[in-house]
Amino acid sequence: MHHIAEVERNNIRENLKNPTFLSIMSDGSTDTSVKDEELVYVRFCHKGKIELKFVGIKSVEKADGAHISNAISAIMEGVCDEWRSKLVALGTDGAAVMTGAKNGVVSRLKGDRAYIIGIHCMAHRLQLTFSDAIRSNVMFQKVEDLLSGLYTFYHTSPLNRVNLVNSFQALGHTPLVPT
């Protein structure tokens, strides 16, 4: 499996030699051990076609502008030495840590290159819009409270989780347990 990842990394490295421009999309994630991680994708034109490739994921000691921009830099340096000079846009979730004017990730990676564009991801914008619109709906609030309560009930209690698994097994079904 590691060999496949290295082959793909070498393929991306080769594909990034010729393009004059590239853009980066980055988003944070939290793994099962509750560690912050940064995921990075690169977008570029290769043989006349726009390609989007997953470049890497890196643990972030602290989810602030300095640590996230260092993680992105480290990931990108693993596939393209001259990525900074080719960079024209950065796509992020729009959080202040990413878009802050002084210490945000976009401004840190831009440096003095004013031509680099920071883009607030459309999927994240849609999620924020939907959340704002639905927040006033009483039925939605009730359903969200019910689902959150069920999740908490089974997630925080080993006894409740074991009883749930036993109930599924007694009915002859595969257990569905919150993770």
Automatic annotation (TrEMBL):
Give the InterPro entries listed for this entry.
Answer: RNaseH-like_sf (IPR012337)
Record-given protein name = Zinc finger protein 862-like
- This chain's source organism reads Salmo salar (Atlantic salmon)
Source species taxonomy: Eukaryota, Metazoa, Chordata, Craniata, Vertebrata
